[in-house]
Amino acid sequence: MTPTVVLTGGSDGIGAAAARILSTRDVNLVIVGRSAEKTRAVAAETGASFHIADFARLADVDRIAAQIAADHERIDVLANNAGGIFPGPQITEDGFEKTFQVDHLAPFLLTHRLLDPLLKCGGTVVNTASIGAKIFGRLDLEDIQTLATFTPNRAYGNAKLANILFTKGLHERFGAQGLSSVAFHPGVVATSFASDGGTLMNRLYQGAAKHLLTSPEQGGGTLTHFISGTPGAEWVSGEYYSDQLKVARTNRAAYDPEVVRRHWEIGEELLRRRDWL
């Protein structure tokens, strides 16, 4: 049976590069993107089906999750790749800090919505994290959205740490049911993800250091490695990997089971308050 792969952030950067690689393989590819124009272009090029969603709007996430679940009884891989770094703090229409919502809460909700088709075939969740979790992450569970101590880099680091905590939480909660999960750093990639301006990382990405960065094609290849790899063979479920495809150390909070548990619970509580779960 041809595997179904759902890839978010598929309209640009490493997501679009991964989509192009996957289009040469025997997969049923579904891409999700924020830009309608770019998403349609990548879908036309790769033969993928597509959905348009802005992860700063949880109504969009809810809508596409319902559509994807209705269209696909089984999902072999969900690649949570959409994300970014934003100035702020900005509060979305859903009442959450934008970096936290786009990078963590939105994929957290999407994965919850797609658990049934993922579990039906012993599927995989691949989360695009970052070395920023270790460099910039300063997690405070009492300020999980990084509102009290906001800087763009700290909010991004905490959101990427959230991706890793989510990966470990998925493995602990659903590994026995056949679900696998992995988080990885794609490299410091020369893409437009930091293009919203106003941040130190934006100046790095768009400035003189850009020639030192990993290409989107390289980052897309790393993403594809985890999408296509066999859990237990090419990678181990519940782990965080470097762009060298090796298990790597990350923020020390990721190794505290109580932090993993509480972070998951707080995320669920936040979504329940807004009636998303």
Observed structural traits:
single chain; SDR_fam; alpha/beta; seven-stranded parallel β-sheet; Rossmann fold; oxidoreductase; oxidoreductase activity; Putative oxidoreductase; about 280 residues; NAD(P)-bd_dom_sf
Outline the fold blueprint:
Layout lengths: L3 E5 L4 H10 L5 E6 L2 H11 L2 E4 L5 H14 L5 E4 L17 H16 L1 H6 L3 E5 L3 H4 L16 H23 L5 E5 L15 H7 L9 H13 L11 E2 L15 H17 L4
Outline of the structure:
With 277 residues, the protein is α/β, with parallel strands linked by helices. The protein has helices at residues 13-22, 36-46, 58-71, 98-113, 115-120, 132-135, 152-174, 200-206, 216-228, 257-273; strands at 4-8, 28-33, 49-52, 77-80, 124-128, 180-184, 240-241. GO terms for molecular function: oxidoreductase activity.
Number of helices: 10
* Contiguous runs where pLDDT drops below 50 for at least 5 residues: none
SS strand fraction: 5-15%
Radius of gyration based on Cα positions = 17 Å
What is the name of the CATH topology? Rossmann fold
CATH H-level superfamily title: NAD(P)-binding Rossmann-like Domain
Distance between the termini: 32 Å
- The rough form would be described as globular
- What's the CATH architecture? 3-Layer(aba) Sandwich
Give the strand line-up of the largest sheet: 3-2-1-4-5-6-7
Overall mean confidence score, pLDDT: 93
Number of domains: 1
CATH classification class: Alpha Beta
